[in-house]
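Sharing a chain and its predicted structure for anyone who wants a worked example. Both blocks are below, sequence first, tokens second.
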Amino acid sequence: MLIPARMSEAEEQRWVTVMLDKLAAQESRRTLGDTELAERARRLSDQYLGGRARPVSVRWVTNQNTRWGSCTPSEGSIRLSHRLQGMPEYVVDYVLCHELAHLLVPGHGPRFWRLLEAYPRTERARGYLEGVVAAERLPHVPGAHGA
């Protein structure tokens, strides 16, 4: 955050507080809680999977750094990586659909991918996630900025 040099320390502190409050409000609007995530999963199941996938629990987790989501069909539980928070809605919806499909088909065979064909943004979301993974692999150059 840039602050004009002419600001007094009190003005600076007030401005920082206002801006942090704004950022927190934006983040809370952008990030779904577990309850909203479960409701979203129910709507996606109804819309794209005929309501057949009914998870017992859907929640965000912070211990998945190599996967976007995971599913335990025997428990009916779906977990999404916190790294998805703040990504476009269609990407989160795709990962939810992916994990919902695993409640119906455990592996990644043809039947599984046929289920996901119902979600119209599957290819776009997969491309987005592949781009994120590719960008994470790029060497970080201090002080460099993207175009």
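Comments welcome. The helical segments are 9-30, 34-48, 89-104, 110-116, 122-137.
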